[in-house]
UniProtKB/TrEMBL annotation:
<dbReference type="Pfam" id="PF11338">
    <property type="entry name" value="DUF3140"/>
</dbReference>
<protein>
    <submittedName>
        <fullName>DUF3140 domain-containing protein</fullName>
    </submittedName>
</protein>
<feature type="region of interest" description="Disordered">
    <location>
        <begin position="87"/>
        <end position="114"/>
    </location>
</feature>
<dbReference type="InterPro" id="IPR021487">
    <property type="entry name" value="DUF3140"/>
</dbReference>
Length: 114
């Protein structure tokens, strides 16, 4: 598969996985719930929270201006969302405020929108 075709595939999968708008993600990232979940390196910002900020940047960048690092992060987002969704959906996890849902939302996916 040519790199251009691979990029088109990754771009489409990313936009399937991320079902929140940039403004929805930013609003979510400002909440205490967002900051309370996820793996934190060195006790700082969680990996998912940092990813959410990067997702907003990618969503606001014209497709023609995305670079290899952006596509690598898009692959990472798709993988995380798929793995996390495979862990559920259990009804108790779908309740607003669950850590499962909060983690997914840090990565730009709200399972209640499905």
């Amino acid at each position: 598969m040519a790199k251009q075709d691979d990029h088109a595939h990754v771009y489409a999968r990313f936009h399937d996985a991320v079902n929140m708008s940039p403004s929805e993600i930013e609003e979510w990232l400002d909440t205490a719930e967002s900051r309370a979940v996820g793996f934190k390196r060195d006790g700082g910002e969680s990996v998912g929270h940092a990813s959410g900020r990067r997702i907003v940047q990618i969503l606001r960048t014209p497709e023609a201006e995305l670079d290899g690092g952006d596509y690598a992060h898009m692959r990472k987002v798709v993988g995380f969302v798929r793995r996390h969704l495979a862990q559920g959906p259990h009804q108790e996890h779908k309740v607003p405020g669950s850590r499962w849902r909060s983690s997914l939302m840090n990565w730009g996916h709200d399972p209640l929108k499905d």
